[in-house]
């Protein structure tokens, strides 16, 4: 069960002429009053829970999504896509007279993008429409980034995970969860039941209030998490189970077209690997392979690979995972 948002994405492909240096980073600049021709417009489905449920379904898992979608045109397309991908939609709440989550993504070559979005109906996931009983009967729960208003369901999720026969748990915290830190009561309880924690280096340091990803890793393992994965973009990923720590680089030969959904694809690949009893190094490879496939295409789901393709790529990959000292 993937818990979180589903978003309808409209990709607007721009030229590199609109990218400018801005302080320490870059920006996409749109001069006021100009009429700018774009290279392409592409409609796709996205959102964290939508991406992970579709990704797991393609990898051969029986996947479902727990979230809230509007009865508008975007919501209809989101439901249609989920059903087409074989995702169970029984735990989705559909509300009238509300706008489904919608994004306009300004995307330039090389993967740079700016996302303009409205959370829409994603803010309405609460205790009253969280399918707690259904969550108790799944093998694995995947909690994606959620809106601040949705954090009220954390205590219900803890109750599900704390059961003696409770499911395994993947958590990709975001927003207010990161701001409150690992010592916040609900966060602390969730971490104690987390089998797979997914954060990037910036998030890891914010979550633990530390200055380096190495210190963040030690702090996160100390919370009781079984496996921690910390990504750092092109620099690759470190992962630890508290006993062994491994490093995996990115796939360098991949042409990056669009980075939307890369983190969800990475987490999906790792979750699939752990579900299938693969080792931590193999899980690192699976996540990296899935993410690389996604960034080579437009949108968060077009590049998600199947179970058969994943096993083939794992057998053929030249990725070298190395063990590093703790």
Give an overview of the whole structure.
The chain is of the alpha/beta class. It has a single domain (2-17, 38-324), classed as Ribokinase (UDP-N-acetylmuramoyl-L-alanine:D-glutamate ligase, 3-Layer(aba) Sandwich), CATH 3.40.1190.20. Helices cover 33% and strands 23% of the residues. It has eleven helices and 16 strands. A ten-stranded mixed β-sheet has the order 7-6-1-10-11-12-13-14-15-16, sandwiched between helices. A four-stranded mixed β-sheet has the order 5-2-8-9. Helix 4 packs parallel to helix 6 (185-192), helix 7 (201-208) packs across helix 8 and helix 9 (262-275) packs antiparallel against helix 10 (280-295). The mean pLDDT is 92.
Short summary:
The protein is of the alpha/beta class. Helix content is 33%, strand content 23%.
Topology:
Elements: E1 2-3, E2 7-13, E3 19-22, E4 25-28, E5 40-46, H1 48-58, E6 65-70, H2 73-84, E7 92-95, E8 102-107, E9 113-118, H3 132-135, E10 140-143, H4 154-162, E11 168-171, H5 176-180, H6 185-192, E12 196-200, H7 201-208, H8 213-221, E13 228-231, E14 237-240, E15 245-248, H9 262-275, H10 280-295, H11 307-316, E16 322-324
Strand content: 15-25%
Secondary-structure content class: alpha/beta
| CATH class call | Alpha Beta
CATH architecture: 3-Layer(aba) Sandwich
Terminal-residue CA separation: 33 Å
Helix content: 25-40%
CATH fold-level assignment: UDP-N-acetylmuramoyl-L-alanine:D-glutamate ligase
What oligomeric state do these chains adopt? single chain
SSE ordering: EEEEEHEHEEEHEHEHHEHHEEEHHHE
Average pLDDT works out at 92
Our count of domains comes out at 1
Q: What summary fits the major beta sheet?
A: 10 strands, mixed
The value of Rg in angstroms is 19 Å
* Extended strand count: 16
Shape: globular
Going across the biggest sheet, name each strand in turn.
7-6-1-10-11-12-13-14-15-16
Contiguous runs where pLDDT drops below 50 for at least 5 residues: none
The helix count comes to 11
């Amino acid at each position: 069960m993937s818990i979180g948002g589903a978003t309808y994405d409209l990709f607007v492909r721009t030229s590199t002429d609109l990218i400018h240096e801005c302080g320490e980073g870059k920006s996409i600049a749109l001069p006021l009053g100009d009429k700018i021709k774009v290279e392409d417009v592409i409609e796709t489905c996205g959102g964290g829970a939508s991406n992970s449920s579709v990704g797991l379904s393609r990898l051969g898992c029986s996947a479902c999504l727990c979230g809230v979608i509007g009865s508008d045109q975007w919501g209809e397309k989101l439901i249609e896509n989920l059903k087409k991908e074989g995702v169970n939609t029984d735990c989705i709440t559909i509300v009238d007279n509300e706008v489904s989550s919608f994004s306009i993504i300004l995307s330039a070559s090389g993967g740079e993008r700016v996302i303009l979005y409205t959370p829409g109906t994603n803010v309405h996931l609460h205790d009253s429409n969280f399918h707690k009983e259904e969550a108790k009967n799944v093998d694995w729960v995947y909690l994606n980034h959620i809106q601040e208003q949705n954090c009220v369901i954390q205590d219900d999720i803890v109750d599900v995970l704390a059961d003696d026969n409770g499911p395994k748990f993947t958590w990709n915290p975001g927003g207010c969860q990161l701001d409150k830190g690992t010592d916040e009561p609900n966060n602390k309880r969730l971490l104690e039941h987390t089998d797979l924690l997914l954060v990037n280096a910036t998030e890891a340091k914010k979550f633990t209030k530390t200055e380096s990803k190495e210190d963040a890793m030690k702090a996160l393992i100390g919370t009781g998490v079984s496996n921690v994965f910390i990504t750092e973009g092109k620099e690759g990923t470190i992962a630890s189970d508290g006993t062994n720590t491994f490093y995996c680089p990115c796939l360098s030969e991949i042409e990056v077209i669009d980075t939307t959904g890369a983190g969800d694809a990475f987490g999906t690949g790792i979750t699939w690997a752990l579900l299938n009893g693969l080792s931590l190094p193999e899980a690192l490879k699976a996540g990296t392979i899935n993410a690389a496939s996604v960034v080579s295409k437009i949108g968060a789901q077009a590049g998600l690979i199947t179970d058969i393709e994943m096993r083939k790529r794992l057998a053929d990959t030249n990725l070298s995972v190395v063990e590093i000292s703790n």
